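Structure (tokenized):
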């Protein structure tokens, strides 16, 4: 077949009938409308969103009408762009930018919901209807140009892949509209089938596209965090997420705010005590002079009745949108606030701020957190809002070094310097992101102490307002219990109270009314069963590991101390602890104290981590060491209250721990015989036994438990192998069809050369794209079974087709095919096991190509 005849044939084949052109235009309009609807997900009026979709469809149709006249198409595209620019000038760039940020905020909300993220909104107000309409029209224009580019390329892959991508992303983030889903599905299927037609073939590509889309959408629905259609699937998804989380960060015994699991905080695993943290000081002298350290991990804010949860991303938005961005710009770190305050206060008093270097390694702890001491400076790890500090590594915080301010007091003994109140009074209303710059920034960064104090307090007052708005919530039912337990009698006057007197009262009433049990007491509330099974648990390993423990505990409660009290079991953990159990570990005391502080207007939060107490320091001094390890016995929960100016500071409320962290002159002496409290000797508990996972099985099946586990692993291996083989077969079929079409069109040399180049590179031989024949000698040395003339001949045949427009015949394709098979066999023979796996499932090796011309 001559070149001219082949050119005429391809030209006639490319010329579609008018009916097919119209069919293709309708499909492109549907696709454009679906893409526009998928982007315009902001909460705007329906009419505005519809205008964007209509604009996308009309611009696509207009460009499609001039597809065979390049000048007209370019002219129309230029006209549309000029119209869009004119509209932007009329409305203004700033409103359109704010409108785009409003759309982006919607996707940020979806991202945070799916990935437990804390990406903050752009600080913009709601756009006007005019700005939203202009943005929707501009979006429609851009989408129309993109779809027109797809139509010009006539790419079946792009026509199918783009709608699939929009559908999968929309389903995963739960932002897709039904109309958008329908338009994307129909438009992608029809447009892809248009480009898959050959020689007036029927629309046989539609079923294949529908099957592929159904599989991808199904997988997306199963992976979607909001899918609640099936309990087993939801639990499987939760187990998968917990497995990934544990792989990244590890696990420990801290409940991560899940109070139903708090009784296992200090439980020792079956294999024995595990080193969770290793704390290292610069030298022995630094260790001997150090004070007890609270190593902060999880910080809980929202109390739900059986758990403390981290603050949700949307709680940082609303009237507080942009606050933390502004604080970052001002250099104000909410989690190292005390060190910044202390530096200014020491300078005010003519003192030098002393710090000591502390390195925290986490060989066995949950590595999401850096476990920074409360008095650490901002160096060592980044702060995630005001939640926790982390270095952002994929494997978590394996090691962090902090500079810790020495001599940091506990919260109730903290008295802010006079300059805090004096400078705050002078600032007045000049605080917050919207305030003017109250001081000259050059002075603030220079030697003007007063200016730096004002700069610090302007940020602190803004953050303080946020704290008093977000950290004082107490559920109404729980508030009644708190009021009755702590503040009901006439000896309490909230108007005359101070932080010191508040801490003393809360600590005293907890001490005389409740007993400390290091092993904890299992929560018997109605919601505890679901929490024990992992539902709603914040623990990274709760979903996967709590089921077995719950089954064993239900059958035999000897692993926890029975609750004593009124006999009425509450669904609220704090109410249950104060009125029924009257016994618990540090998590129980801290939970009750957090709500008690909030009840009287003191911002407080629940914190978990590890306590390096005076007893541990004493062991270090006796051994003459500068480091120590912390295990499950050092796991602890405490309260952090916000001290104006100084920031979040710890408060110890657990009986028996005061003398471990307070100096002798700071300990509040309590006359227990007057208060009627029990002696400390009664606070003895038992260690909860860790149930074996085989206890979940019927007794007659337990001897075969490990055999079943082995079969399960074998089944998983077969599933993985089957999935790998399936994708291999699909890709092989796609490659074979693509090569067959290319050979028929006289373009097979492009694909064959690409394959040859990859195989030569796999053999370790560099290919010079300008002179591929130059690698023949090196290839013959690397592959003795391949003769140099074979490679030269194959390259010459492909060059003849590529540059001489002489198509490859069946015999010539078989020559190139034979060379490829030899190279594949040679690479395979010399490869390691891991490379062979990659060759088979990624490189698609050892695949006969003799059917490419069939």
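Design, position by position:
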């Amino acid at each position: 077949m001559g070149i001219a005849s082949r050119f005429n044939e391809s030209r006639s084949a490319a010329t579609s009938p008018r009916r097919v052109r119209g069919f293709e235009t309708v499909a492109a309009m549907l696709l454009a409308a679906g893409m526009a609807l998928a982007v315009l997900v902001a909460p705007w009026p329906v009419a505005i969103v519809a205008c964007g979709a209509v604009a996308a469809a009309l611009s696509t149709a207009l460009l499609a009408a001039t597809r065979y006249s390049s000048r007209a198409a370019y002219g129309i595209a230029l006209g549309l762009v000029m119209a869009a620019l004119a509209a932007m000038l009329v409305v203004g760039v700033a409103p359109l930018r704010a409108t785009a940020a409003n759309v982006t905020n919607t996707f940020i909300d979806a991202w945070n919901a799916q990935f437990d993220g804390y990406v903050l909104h752009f600080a913009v107000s709601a756009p006007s209807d005019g700005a939203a309409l202009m943005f929707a029209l501009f979006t429609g224009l851009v989408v129309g140009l993109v779809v027109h580019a797809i139509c010009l390329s006539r790419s079946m892959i792009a026509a199918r892949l783009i709608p699939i991508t929009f559908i999968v992303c929309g389903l995963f983030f739960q932002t897709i509209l039904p109309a958008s889903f329908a338009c994307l599905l129909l438009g992608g299927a029809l447009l892809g089938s248009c480009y898959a037609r050959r020689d007036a073939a029927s629309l046989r590509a539609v079923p294949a596209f529908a099957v592929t889309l159904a599989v991808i959408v199904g997988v997306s629905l199963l992976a979607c965090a909001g899918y609640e259609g099936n309990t087993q699937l939801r639990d499987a998804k939760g187990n998968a997420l917990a497995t990934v989380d544990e792989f990244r960060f590890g696990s420990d015994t801290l409940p991560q705010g899940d109070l139903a699991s708090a009784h296992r905080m200090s439980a020792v695993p079956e294999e024995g005590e595990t080193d969770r943290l290793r704390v290292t000081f610069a030298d022995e002298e630094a260790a001997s002079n150090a004070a007890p350290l609270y190593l902060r991990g999880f910080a809980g804010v929202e109390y739900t009745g059986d758990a403390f949860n981290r603050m949700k991303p949307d709680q940082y938005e609303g009237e507080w949108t942009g606050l933390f961005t502004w604080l970052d710009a001002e250099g104000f770190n909410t989690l190292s606030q005390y060190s910044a305050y202390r530096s200014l206060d020491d300078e005010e008093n003519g003192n030098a701020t002393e710090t000591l270097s502390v390195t925290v390694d986490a060989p066995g702890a949950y590595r999401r957190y850096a476990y920074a001491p409360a008095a650490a400076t901002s160096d060592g790890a980044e702060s995630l809002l005001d939640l926790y500090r982390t270095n952002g590594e994929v494997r978590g915080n394996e090691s962090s070094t902090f500079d810790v301010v020495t001599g940091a007091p506990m919260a109730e003994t903290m008295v802010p310097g006079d300059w805090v109140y004096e400078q705050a009074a002078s600032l007045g209303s000049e605080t917050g992101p919207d305030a003017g710059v109250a001081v000259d920034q050059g002075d603030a960064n220079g030697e003007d102490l007063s200016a730096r104090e004002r700069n610090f307090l302007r940020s602190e007052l803004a953050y303080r307002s946020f704290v008093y708005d977000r950290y004082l919530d107490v559920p109404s039912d729980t508030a009644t219990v708190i009021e009755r337990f702590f503040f009901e009698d006439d000896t309490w006057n909230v108007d005359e109270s101070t932080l010191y007197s508040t801490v003393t009262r809360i600590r005293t009433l907890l001490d005389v009314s409740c007993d400390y049990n290091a092993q904890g007491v299992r929560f018997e509330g109605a919601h505890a069963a679901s929490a024990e099974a992992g539902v709603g648990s914040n623990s990274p390993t709760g979903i996967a590991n709590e089921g077995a423990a719950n089954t064993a505990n239900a059958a035999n409660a000897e692993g926890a101390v029975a609750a004593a009290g009124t006999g009425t079991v509450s669904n609220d953990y704090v109410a249950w602890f104060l009125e029924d159990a009257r016994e618990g570990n540090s998590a129980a005391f801290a939970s009750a104290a957090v709500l008690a502080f909030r009840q009287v207007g003191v911002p407080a939060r629940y914190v978990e981590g590890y306590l390096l107490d005076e007893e541990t320091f004493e062991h270090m001094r006796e051994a003459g060491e500068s480091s120590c390890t912390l295990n499950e016995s050092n796991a602890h929960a405490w309260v952090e209250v916000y001290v104006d100016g100084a920031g979040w500071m710890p408060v110890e409320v657990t009986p028996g721990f005061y003398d471990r962290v307070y100096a002798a002159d700071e300990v509040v002496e309590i006359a227990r015989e007057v208060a009627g409290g029990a002696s400390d000797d009664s606070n003895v508990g038992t260690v909860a036994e860790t149930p074996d996972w085989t206890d979940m099985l019927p007794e007659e099946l337990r001897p075969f438990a490990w055999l079943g586990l082995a079969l399960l692993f074998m089944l998983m291996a077969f599933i993985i192998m089957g999935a790998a083989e399936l994708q291999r077969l699909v890709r092989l079929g796609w490659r074979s069809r693509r090569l067959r079409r290319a050979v028929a069109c006289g373009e097979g040399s492009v694909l064959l050369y690409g394959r040859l180049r990859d195989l030569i590179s796999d053999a370790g031989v560099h290919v010079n794209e300008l002179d591929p024949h130059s690698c023949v000698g090196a290839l013959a040395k690397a592959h003795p079974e391949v003769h140099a003339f074979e490679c030269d001949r194959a390259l010459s045949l492909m060059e003849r087709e590529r540059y001489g427009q002489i198509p490859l015949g069946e015999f010539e394709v078989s020559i190139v095919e034979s060379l490829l098979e030899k190279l594949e066999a040679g690479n395979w023979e010399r490869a390691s096991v891991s490379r062979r796996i990659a060759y088979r499932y990624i490189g698609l090796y050892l695949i006969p190509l003799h059917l490419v011309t069939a």
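Reviewer-requested clarification: The chain has a mean pLDDT of 74. The first strand starts at residue 277 and ends at 281.
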